[in-house]
Amino acid sequence: MKFAIIAAGEGSRLAQEGVALPKPLVRLNGEPMVERLLRIFFENEAEEVAVIVNQLHPSTEAFVRRLMDEHPGWHIRLVVQTTPSSMHSFAALAPYLSDAPFCLTTVDTIFREDDFRTYIVAFRAALAEGFDGAMAVTDFIDDESPLYIGTDEAMNIDGFYDVREPRFRFISGGIYALTPRALDTLHRCMAEGQSRMRNFQRGLIADGLRLKAHLFTKILDVDHAADIVKAETFLRS
Predict the structure, then answer these.
(1) Distance CA 161, CA 170 (A)
(2) Verdict on whether the full-model pTM lies above 0.90
């Protein structure tokens, strides 16, 4: 199984609020976010992790290359490319994800490690049952623009929605474990000029992929300087 990290955003909001480091290098309890994800992924038996960083912050590229030297057992495929959106970053990583199931997330997605281990086990079980993916969900809503997820009682996903309805219990956590079949949907979305990951998720349902929802206790994003303290407190709790 492969893993992928989108770390190519500009981090403009953090910079405007006085955070000097590029977002992937921001430390949570002493550990840079990109290194934390890499460590967790390899602890969960990643055969390879594809990482995309932008050309605007050479220090991020240099840091990842240093990790590659320091951890020869970490098989990292580094892509250095500035992209206009997360979907474009995903597309840049897609050639390295086409031959095995994979798990993709952005560098600032913060979760508990035991939740993630359970998630990967559940994804592998879902594959054995014929599902095409398992999407991380949470009932903790602290997002500026949450994406609501419709599920049945068995946690099968039936849709992704911008507006909340009474039956929606969960929102997307921004972690996607999928089979290579999902890349067909990605390429279609790109050809149609779409750029938002939520439209990619809707496209998965439209293209008939079977997706499971997997509940995390809480998932946070680091978009603002105040989110750093929130994330550190959450991870220590």
Answers:
(1) 11
(2) yes
